[in-house]
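ABC transporter, pasting as requested.
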Amino acid sequence: MSGLLPLLQSGIVQTVALGAAILGVVGGVLGVFAVLRRQSLMGDALSHAALPGVCLGFLVAGARDLGAILTGAFLSGALAALTVMLIVRRTRLKTDAALGIVLSVYFAVGVVLLTHAQATGGAAQAGLATFLFGQAAAILRGDLWIMGGVTALALTLVVGLWKEFKLVAFDPDFARALGLPVLALEAALTVMVAMAIVVGLQMVGVVLMVAMLIAPAAAARQWTRSLGGMVVLSAVFGAGAGVTGALISATGRGLPTGPVVVLVASAVVAVSLALAPGRGAVWQAVAARTQRRTLAARRVMMTIHDLGAAHGDPAYPAEGGMLDAFHGTATRPALRRLEARGLVRPVTHPPEDSPHWALTERGQAAARAVRDDAGAP
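Structure tokens follow.
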């Protein structure tokens, strides 16, 4: 803790951490709609398509001016989104093919422009390549105002068009039947994803930006079934991953902030996939094991019930070894669980000294209920 306090008092660390938090919030919120609309690859395509805009913004401004670079990146990303929509509507290609084409072509153009910009020489182009993987240390206080403004605009649009975006995300056909401009709303969501990419260019770069869109939303999806809850939780996960990654990067030498932030966000996804209640792999494994045990116990209970019905005695004592032979496995664990629930009880059956089991009155009623349900139409 003593080593962390001086770190938190550093102006550079505070700036980077705040920028990472802003990125996490806007990426988390807008990533939810990308995930729900099954357009995760759209974020990847738009992030790569931002590179030509970065280079053109630099070439037009003649300097590493953040405003010009981010404006170019936004226009390039928006143009890429429109290109995808045009390909899908004017050709027989599916969306995934259109995204692959746009990603490859725009990124290739960006690499060519980046090479050209670097070949011009001079100190102005220094660090331009950092937009590929991000350079959080280059973020200035003034840059935070630009990032915050873009984020505020995106969040304002989400809040203002919440009902429309919600309907388009879950049931676009119904939204179209209601007369909503579905195409315009989908275009607005796509443009806002481009805005989120603009926010994250300096932090994580065009290559890793898609992770900040998808990872928080994918993690939040595991913990809630509500869209509102998912949006809030995704924003929290994104901001938390951003701040945590920034602090981890600041404590170690040579640790790039962007990739560390992405790794933290990926760790949140891994934990969510494993431990989220109801949907996590561990939770599902435990539930499946419990269900198998419950089913095995029910089968044993029904076997004892059927033996009693065959002998005309509902309290007929079934021999443990016979139950094992009938089920082909040890039934003692199932019998102990049934006993704990008050459905069976151990009994003696002279002159035999082997363990026997009989249904209690509660067990007889439960077995009859199961049999009645099985026989119901």
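Note for the archive: The chain has 15 helices and three strands.
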